[in-house]
Amino acid sequence: MSFRFMFATALALSVCASAFAQKRTWSQPCGDYDTQSEMNLCAHDEAADADAKLNETYSQLIAKLKGDAFARSKVVASERAWLAYRGADLAAAWPIRPGESPTVAYGSVHPLCYYKALTAMTNDRTSELQRWMTSQEGDICSSQLARCRRAAETTASGN
């Protein structure tokens, strides 16, 4: 093979890869698109966005706990357990035997349903982690994590 052919092939592949990697903007609810593949891709992208938001929120929480290794370890363990739970819960909702295709077992709508459930669970977890970082004055049942961190920050700053 000539160098020129290999270079042209590599360039073409990189252009195609970047076209696929570009994030598509969805202008309507995922279930309102004309084809099942569009609905599935839209739902996939929404799940990816929800996961990115969860990761961002988790990183903020971990950063707030930078001076408390014990609390950090508890949050890390909790997040790992929650991720395992999310995967197991989704697997239980749509059980797939080894070698079985989910779209054969549940139809071409399976990815849409799966990603919608994944998105909902992920958004709920993000909200939960956000609540852990805040506490309302007078709410004795708010996350002790937020209350203790706020007290530690106040003490450290001398206020």
SSE order and pairing:
Elements: H1 3-21, H2 36-64, H3 69-93, H4 102-106, H5 110-132, H6 144-157
Helix pairs in contact: 2-5
Provide a descriptive summary of the structure in words.
The structure is a single chain. The chain has 159 residues and is mainly α. The chain has one domain (30-157): Substrate Binding Domain Of Dnak, Chain:A, Domain 2, CATH 1.20.1270.180. 72% of the residues lie in helices and 0% in strands. It has 6 helices and no strands. Helix 2 (36-64) runs parallel beside helix 5 (110-132). It is elongated and about 50 Å long. The N and C termini lie far apart (72 Å). Residues 1-21 have low confidence and may be disordered.
